[in-house]
Amino acid sequence: MNRREMREQALVLLFEKEFFADKPAAEIEAVYEENVQELSDYARSAFENTLSNTDKIDPIIEKYSTSRKIRRIPKINLSILRLALYEIIYEENVPESVAVNEAVELAKKYSGKDDYAFINGILGSYLREK
User: Taking the model in full, what pTM does it have?
Assistant: First the structure.
C-alpha cells in the first residue's frame, strides 16, 4: 500500500469520526477493518494523532478560513484540512508541499467541484505565514 492510499484511509476514519464524535477511535478503526480492509500503521497513527491535536489544528483553520466559520465547513473538507495540517506540523518525513498536494488531490476526489481551491488557499496561507 502506498502513502496516498494510507492517507486516504486516515481521511475516511477522520470523516467517520465527524458523524460519530462520541465513538472511541478504536471502535471506528475496528469497524473500518471489519468492513473495508486492514488499516495501515500510518493511517492509524495519522488518524489518532490528528484527533489528539485537533485543539491545536482547528484554530489554524479558523484563522485562515476568512469566508467560512469552522462549523460551516463541510465535514469532508474539514477532515482533509485537519489531516493536511497534522502532516505539515507533526510529520517530519512528509514535505509540506506533498501534504498540500495530497490534500488538494483528496479534495478533487471527495469534495465539491471547487472545494480544492478553498483547501489549497487555507493551507497556502498558513505556510506563507509560518
Answer: 0.96
27, 122 Cβ separation under 8 angstroms: no
Q: What is the dihedral of CA 68, 71, 76, 81, to 10 degrees?
A: 60
Cβ(18)–Cβ(75) below 8 Å: yes
Task: Provide the pLDDT confidence category of residue 67 given band limits of 50, 70 and 90.
Answer: confident
In angstroms, the CA 18 to CA 54 distance is: 12
Residue 9 has what pLDDT?
98
Q: Which amino acid is at 42?
A: Y
Length, in residues, of the chain: 130
